[in-house]
């Protein structure tokens, strides 16, 4: 990457962090079931991407049955992530939920070590330990506030675990396919798995007012296309570790947005434990090896 390209990529990186930080705000603004919110967020993202599908028709036709199987599994795990994490936002604060979600790269490395024997150095272990301690502190302090807040923390952690599995599938698949084909396919499988869940649960698919559809669309455009998809695109031009650092920016910006837009306050425990987690995850990513 030459020097003239550095500023635009860095600006896009900042835009991506701000975009994903709005996700929790839009979810809290909606009154629909979280599974419905997640389903339409992804289906509408697919709809926005639809005009470019024909351009990738040959790549799709060349995918094997094994590729489709892993894409489906990756999509199901992404759908589970959205279901769990969005549910956590109904029970705990934006600050607690988003900061616990930053454990994703830690879970990815643990899975990589268990499955592929990826090397883990002492500094990475130190980062994992610090981040986990911070999570325990947040959980214990939230339990003092209410049992529901603790349940929300657990749901956020399970959501981080689900998206870590999704990312591991994605890292394997992205060796053989473009970012567009991977994202469109995974979004579709995730949305469809959520549609099955909604049908089984009896959630209505229609009858939502204009403000709800506006929230669904905002989630598709802002945090999904300008956030997650943008980061996947930037992986081609920026260091993977640098892109991974975006997880540290989301809870900071999301907490500020929640304070301004949702009137949420930060307790001393949440602030201290959140900084502890962020430091641990930063230490982990900083000393991680590809």
Automatic annotation (TrEMBL):
Membrane topology reported for the UniProt record: Multi-pass membrane protein
Family under the similarity heading: Belongs to the EamA transporter family.
Natural source organism: Paenibacillus curdlanolyticus YK9
Annotated EamA domain residues: 10-138, 151-285
Protein name: EamA domain-containing protein
Lineage per the UniProt record: Bacteria, Bacillati, Bacillota, Bacilli, Bacillales
Subcellular location per the Swiss-Prot or TrEMBL entry: Endomembrane system
Database matches in InterPro entries: AA-Vitamin_Transporters, EamA_dom, EmrE-like
Segments traversing the membrane: 12-29, 35-56, 68-88, 94-116, 123-143, 149-169, 181-200, 216-235, 242-262, 268-285
A Pfam family hit: EamA
Domain of life assignment: Bacteria
Main location: membrane
Keywords: Membrane, Transmembrane, Transmembrane helix
Residue stretches in coiled coil: none
GO cellular component: membrane
